[in-house]
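Late entry, written up from scratch paper. The run itself happened at the end of the previous shift, but nothing got recorded in the book at the time, so transcribing now.
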Amino acid sequence: MIHIVFNEPDVEVLQKAIEMDESMAGEIKIIRDDYAVGPLQNIFTPEGALQRKEWWNNVLEGGDYEGSVEEDKVNDEQVLLDIAEKLTNDENEQLWIWAAQNKHDVCGYYWLVSQLAGFQGRVQILYLNNLPFINEKGNIFYPEWLSQIPPKEFIKAKKLARPVTTSEFEVDGDEWNKICAQGSMVRLLEGGKKILHKEEHYYDTDLSRFIMPDPQKASKIIHSFLSKNKETTGDAFLLWRLKTMLQQNEKYEVSGKIAGMKDFEIKKRSAVETTE
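Output as recorded:
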């Protein structure tokens, strides 16, 4: 059995669940790229893949994750090749895809399933969409991320595993092609598996609301956004948008070197300062 998740924190909680239930034993692999942001056009061609790689290099340049692309820390294509090899060499091998109801997981699912049609009948999906779980305090909640689910609840969730149907391979594969062709740079999840498309500056207005008259580290602004805003995305993308806003808008004052999230502070200029 091979398990697929889309976020690093999901690995630990799923591993703990496997330790509780040996029937779930298997290798855990991660699809690391965030397909909810960035260019996707012609992504399966060398030109499209290079365009996405260059875009990520630009986003990460001078930040906390600079060099991650060149260091090959994200190599989903190789992960997919490894999975395909295992499924090809062992006809009894099964692939379980774990996804929660968030844009990151759903976009990753579309990317993955669009390339697995040749293994129909051996790919299981566990899409935890609007399903109630019980947290550590005994309260019912609806998780947005797999890592929010206690390990013992994963054991119950495994009963929801079902094969990806022939129709889903066709429909979801077509949907992925439409998502790629749309040309947007930001994708949101409206509900179910429906993706909405936005421009790359979509988060800028909400992000700017967390810039105050008093200086704050960029890391604090991003943390406030992530903990309070309804729609969120990765911190690397937000840092890039924050830097872009500083270049384009004179109403903010910066102190320190504009690099990593903890390297510089930002404050909102007063009306008098802006006029001057």
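The chain has a mean pLDDT of 92.
(Scratch paper discarded after transcription.)
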